[in-house]
């Protein structure tokens, strides 16, 4: 059997070539080292450090409260765990919204301190100017439209976007503003299938679906959704490939039982002193119980 060819580093040109060939792009929201290591060696195209990780790892109930420093910590972990996938950072709430200067500064910090290669910025046409500033500063950006968790009050909650012709047209306008700002790619989160399909057909850049059907140029999913690690809510668009919660419950229950019954650690997991060293130690420490145990063992052996 021929050896599998060595994997090449994914770049924006790689993604553009995939779009041209009609080959789907895989994008995974990852935020811990081990997930990055496994996904990267399996061939994931894009590893996106999602602010959703702040909910899974740190217990935030919304991405809005996830801090810049928390996203930075996750971004550094992904950098350590990946070699080939394109490293993307989901810029957190209020990190690029205030001004062009703030947007450039914070994007630059992710590049400088976490070795990030591209950013992801969620919003609409009103955020395009600040996104354009990041791009002009030399940091590529994936635009993010549709359900944007930072704007839930405005959108009326986690409701699919683009179900009416009017709303679909607004999303198209947002997408075109992102493209005009220089975005190299676009993520459609829980828009209707038709919105993502139209954008994939009409925009020259890769369009990625997050709950927006399978006719875009690629698909994004949150890694914890694959394993049901956010029990509080399972989005309609997510597919649980393996439910790790029952497995975790079983393992932790068995561990607790073994500890209570003094079955763990057992002989296979325990290190002992050599007999002569133990006897010397017990004498020096005047550990009478252990000395009696040694004597008793010697009598039984004799």
UniProtKB/TrEMBL annotation:
Signal peptide: none
EC number: 2.1.2.11
One of the GO biological process terms: pantothenate biosynthetic process
Residues at which 3-methyl-2-oxobutanoate binds: 51-52, 90, 120
Species the sequence originates in: Candidatus Filomicrobium marinum
InterPro entries named in the record: Pantoate_hydroxy_MeTrfase, Pyrv/PenolPyrv_kinase-like_dom, Pyrv_kinase-like_dom_sf
Binding site for Mg(2+): 51, 90, 122
Subunit structure: Homodecamer; pentamer of dimers.
Cofactor: Mg(2+)
The protein's name in its UniProt record: 3-methyl-2-oxobutanoate hydroxymethyltransferase
Presence of keyword Metal-binding: yes
